[in-house]
Sequence to fold (285 residues):
Amino acid sequence: MQAIKHGKIDLDDPAVTRALIQQQAVLGVVGFFDSNNMLRSIGLTCAVCHSTVDDSVAPGIGARIDGLANRDLNVDAIIAAAPNLQPAVNLLSLADPGITVVNVKAVLNSWGPGKFDAELFLDGKAVNPQQTTNGFVTGQNVTGATLLPNARGLSGHNLHTWTGGWGTVTYWNALVAVNELHGTGTFFDERFDNASQFPIAAKAGLGHISTDPDSDRVTGKLAALHFYQLALPSVQFMNPQNKGRFYHDGRFLTLLDVVKSYNDRFNLGLRDQEESDLVEYLKSL
Fold:
């Protein structure tokens, strides 16, 4: 940390990036290395968008704050930098056969930091017609991307209302994990069969994704992920001195305290090691 503070570490060096990924020090990024210590593939977790750091070491470097949206993240720039955008073109062409890589990059670069268009690959619509009551911007098209939402303070919210209240928090976790991050799992929503509203989702069958239960890596984690989100405090209970407290009112100092509380209240009978194991499992989601 001291070396980083004094500028002795070149964070633009790919070797440094690889080393940080191997040490699980890049929030939301999971690297898969072979026996020769070579990075073969990368996966993303929910934390890449819905967690951040306190900048205690340097901008973008510090203690992890789970559930607070990463509003510094340029999702658009990361996707646009992909060496092969043809899969995105192929999917979007289900709504517009004339779409090109140039078009895709232009749409991506219109989002801005801290934003993501979760519906783009469902309906193919890159912009929303914006109309205001004062008449100043009536009919003006704006990006369809919305601010990344916090994944904390969700206790009492039966519907995830960030983009219209389509379903529960668990529903959205499944949608993002399976449809957005291409995780191996199961997702069903017959509303996506409506070709007039969701032309891409309807043609690609994105509302009917299933896999063998033995290979499903998403469904079995949804309940634990929901528990973890509910354990995180709402934003109003955060403070600069102690940003990492847990539960909706910030009453618990650590995640282990949350687990112990549930263990006691519901007579779960978990032993100390099992409580610790559960904490580590929740942190891995």
